[in-house]
Specification:
2 copies of one chain form a homodimer.
Chain A (H helix, E strand, L loop, with lengths): L10 E4 L9 H10 L4 E3 L10 H11 L2 E2 L2 E2 L9 H21 L3 E4 L11 H14 L1 H7 L2 E4 L16 H11 L7 E6 H4 L5 H8 L3 E6 L23 H10 L6 E3 L12 H15 L1
Parallel strand pairs in A: 1-2, 1-9, 2-3, 4-5, 5-6, 6-7, 7-8, 8-9
């Protein structure tokens, strides 16, 4: 298992962790100053007509783009909506390439309004992902399929377990050319009794490891994530498994915390993130 | 697939659906009058020093006990707590036998306060379940393992998928003597990409099918369940799969709805339950 302490090349921050309160160039400077080598920005922080400007801001701060967040939902209610989503995601892949991000995080969307055909919705999402293959291969930016916690199956993602993500990778990319991979997020996956076997199956398909914690008293399943070490997840065990499977990228902190960390002073939040990465992850 | 309409022998109500506002004998009369043949009461509604009184009340109403709710949590923080839980659950099995209930629903408990060893907790729960085998066999009351939605893994259940329940059945009862079974609850299981294959694997281990619905706008993951047909679950497909696997028991309505149905007049609620069982389940 890798030693994270002192290794800025092994730790990163997702900008959501600071609550999107400041422009990307300001956040990038703070993240670099706190000892991180990687940053994962969101689309709404980047001018996608001129993504080279964001790329320059990251470079100026001495950071690399760990990834890019994220696809628009592929589970539209009709074919026109789903085609528009594919188009929007092609543009995101192109912007990610300019940023130098190795992957675009794919959050696939939940069941459309009025729908109850979950299997059908999943099949449509797979079609949308397949349509992104040429752009992913042309840009060299992978799609990182991120299974979301089952509590979001209705409104955010019909992709809900690592096992399912592995199945999808095998269907989309049977030759393992590598244009799709998997983002394992501790918050979404920690509860899964099949997690360790699924991670082993995923192997080097895993392109991202996101950490935070699941608080015992969760007040809001969306925006009350905990700081690493404040909840119930055995994060070191998770990192051990993911690295044993072959993952060698940076560990990324992603904390949605409207009720707590987003209220705090950013440099202190980043300092705590780094200390907890070193002590509990 | 069975036709439910007009078949009181195929439909039941869990008393939680009415919010535990009236004594069991009153609820039983309402349930029978609404056209149901089965009722599943909770322990706090039954005087376990004299369970024959509750049994007589059900009989007087013309109902059978569909099951009995439920075990106390087996995931205690220390060995003494876990032993006490086993003792309490033995008494529940004995009361269930007097009620004539074919099974005791097992909700196994979440991670104890301060714990992060999920695998260890699961192993301890399995030990507690194993300790109940002699009583289950002596009373003839099965333990119905109920996987709960992953959103409850911290506070209510470390058993979270039907696949995991099948694994546990195979470990606890390798000879399939039948003292453990599985309760499939639509609310807990609907999102699972492995649900249909897991149900097929479970086969006749499935001893209960609980229905309600997952509302698109869930305000409280615990007590804002929807009436069948008001949410996103394809309940007919679920019943089809469970019956194809060999299940031939009654379909049980269990709706925790502090914010809506528990506020309504009980006979109207039961009428709606019956109509929805006939029309959407």
């Amino acid at each position: 298992m890798r030693e994270l302490a002192g290794r800025r090349d092994l730790i990163g921050v997702n900008t959501a962790t600071l609550g999107h309160r400041e422009p990307l160039e300001v956040v990038a400077r703070r993240v670099a100053a706190a000892g991180f080598g990687w940053i994962t920005p969101w689309r709404h922080e980047v001018d996608e007509d001129h993504p080279e400007r964001a790329a320059a801001a990251l470079r100026a701060a001495g950071l690399r783009a760990g990834g890019y967040c994220r696809t628009v939902y592929l589970s539209g209610a009709d074919a026109a909506q789903r085609r528009a989503a594919v188009e929007a995601n092609r543009r995101a892949l192109e912007a990610a390439a300019v940023l130098g991000a190795p992957f675009l995080v794919a959050v696939v969307g939940g069941l459309p309004e009025g729908a109850t055909d979950l299997a059908g919705c999943r099949a449509q999402v797979l079609e949308g992902l397949a349509a992104l293959q040429p752009t992913a291969q042309a840009t060299g930016v992978r799609l990182a399929l991120e299974p979301l916690h089952p509590v979001y199956a209705t409104d955010r993602s019909v992709l809900n377990t690592v096992a399912q993500a592995v199945d999808w990778c095998e269907q989309l990319d049977p030759g393992a050319q590598g244009w799709v991979g998997i983002a394992v997020d501790a918050y979404h996956a920690w509860w899964d009794p099949a997690l360790e076997t699924s991670i082993a199956r995923a192997g080097r398909r895993i392109v991202a490891l996101h950490v935070c914690d699941w608080l015992r008293q969760t007040r809001d399943p969306l925006q009350d994530r905990g700081m690493m070490g404040d909840g119930v997840i055995d994060l070191r065990r998770l990192r051990y498994c993911v690295e044993a499977a072959g993952f060698d990228g940076p560990v990324e902190v992603e904390i949605f915390s409207r009720l707590d960390w987003w209220q705090r002073e950013p440099d202190g939040v980043l300092r705590t993130c780094r200390e907890r990465l070193w002590s509990v992850c």
